[in-house]
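Chain A, query sequence.
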Amino acid sequence: MTDPDATPEPDGGPGEVLRAAARRAIEAVVMVAEQPLDPHLLGQLLELSPTVVEELCHELAAGYEAEGRGFQLARVAGGWRFQTHPDQAPYVERFVLAGQTAKLSAAALETLAIVAYKQPISRAQVAAIRGVSVDGVMRTLQSRGYITEIARDPGPGQAVMFGTTPAFLETLGLDHVGQLPALGDFVPGAAVVEQLERGLRPDPSLPERLSALEETNSQRHDATKAPNGTLPPLDDLDGFDDLDDLDDLDDGEG
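Chain A, predicted structure.
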């Protein structure tokens, strides 16, 4: 019998026939699986080596992409699963009713991000970073299956250390935490920081400008007074249509 692990033969050869049958079997098993399937498990089911299973899965994934399918075979959380193609997200979002899936609060998302990037991390360390108590938020994330206890701190108190779960990776479509975007991608560049700092710096000419404005206002106030130092009667101001006319007094046109 021809070994399916052998190098593929030309189209129609016995080896390629066996590989085609194996690809169909992978499609069938992954279709009914509730979790991403590990290549080792698929290999046991198909009696193939994990390396060959990986090759077959990559062939299937490339074939779906070349055909422009609305779904894809993706490697997620250490296994393979079917999922909708990213460019079909707008249509999938229309199908999923708003509010059908409970969303995480901003506090929960911030806490989850801290655990994801700093794991293993204790509850007290997360609270120190956020500056608020995180007990309730951590319990929520545990109940959702996004974080779990992974170790204990060997130091005093042996605090529980938390980390993310395969469900977290599956939800984000990641194979491992190393695929999380670098934190540097979210930090503004030096030019942006410089502009922000410049906008926050006090204007050095502001005191002089305020002093000049105060002196100008004082001069205009003095110009409206009668020779004896008292304000003129209202009748004498009838000729000024607006405040700009007061400038004429400075030029001696009154």
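The beta strands are 71-76, 79-84, 121-122, 147-152, 160-164. Residues 84 and 92 are 8 Å apart (CA to CA).
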